[in-house]
């Protein structure tokens, strides 16, 4: 399903980028379609469609694929650019919108090739919910800072409700669910760092 609010060329561009990144990461790890399907819980047919840019994947689907590959979600949504740039103007920050939930993700700071910190701004529309499985690769830490609105985070069996200004520290070692609360959507900053 494609989001009709985004220009078709923009959708085709991000779908092509995701397709190329997914194929390259799968091949770099020496995984067949069947092996990645087993690790991610995503069917071989769907993985193949995403790799051929015949489907606009959702945040949940991308999260499952990233978890199966053991890589941060950003590796499926951004190009390898070598060393990080000192200045990343807003216009240079990659933006991706989930075609179903309307989740908007802005890559503020890319994680460098040798680790480092990654910063992502997320906007969740009213009542939107996005869930991710436990990462199968090396877990990393995240710190979430609420900028606007209210958010519920389910971290495994723990549940947290955050309001503007609240900060939550957690990892990707358990399943995660993010749900916008209240009458409006919410906006938050995620900072990911090596364990």
Task: Provide a quick synopsis of the model.
The chain is α+β, with helices and mostly antiparallel strands and 195 residues long. It has helices at residues 8-28, 33-40, 44-51, 59-69, 74-77, and strands at 95-97, 104-109, 118-124, 129-132, 141-148, 150-155, 158-162, 167-171, 176-181, 186-193.
Describe what you observe in this structure.
Helix 2 packs across helix 4. The strands form 2 sheets. A 6-stranded antiparallel β-sheet has the order 1-2-3-10-5-8, with no helix packed on it. Strands 4-9-6-7 form a 4-stranded antiparallel β-sheet. It has 195 residues and is of the alpha+beta class. The chain has 5 helices and 10 strands; from the N terminus they run αααααββββββββββ.
Strand-helix topology:
Blueprint: H1 8-28, H2 33-40, H3 44-51, H4 59-69, H5 74-77, E1 95-97, E2 104-109, E3 118-124, E4 129-132, E5 141-148, E6 150-155, E7 158-162, E8 167-171, E9 176-181, E10 186-193
Antiparallel strand pairs: 1-2, 2-3, 3-10, 4-9, 5-8, 5-10, 6-7, 6-9
